[in-house]
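Example record for the data management plan.
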Amino acid sequence: MVNMVASVDGASTGPDTRSGSLSGEGDRQLFHALRAVADVVLAGAGTVRAENYGAPRGEDHRPRLAVVSASLALDPAARFFQEPDEPSIVLTTEDALDGGQAEPLTAVADVRAVGAHSLDWPAALRLLRHDYGAKTLLVEGGPSLNTQLVAEDLVDELRLTVAPLLVGGAARRIVAPGAPAQTLALTLDEVTEEDGFLFLRYLRDRH
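Corresponding structural encoding:
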């Protein structure tokens, strides 16, 4: 399940390059509600750095955080490594492990290779399910991560908040360039509105 926010003109971040500047109270409530039903929250390294991620938290449920990084250019002192009750998961490649980049992270994270030169996404999802109990995987982007999942046709559900804002500029869309050219059909399952924000739920049409 992918959860993203975008402006009316399709920007996935505001002028400050953060998605939080597009958000409203309703979107923040949805953000936490979706985390409350997720077993693992998955995000790209660029997103967790830009948004200054901490550990996913809830009153009775704390999903595990999984970070995607092919380069392993991650700071072991970052919030998302220091706050969780259980170590965050880092998904990377065998090339990165062979290069020795993982050593500073192994004390604060479960570093797992899924793929030799690039991430093998079917293998990554199997690992998250079998080793970490991820029956519900919540993907919070960013666009580069979404591109990889779209390319493999692995998105079952899209939660899209449309913010009543025009951003302009060079902000990226919720899926970055590089996704396959073919159209992936979605079925609109739910629409709600609050304070000018639209909350859309789409399901992947696999018929």
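Summary line stored alongside the record: The longest strand covers residues 186-194.
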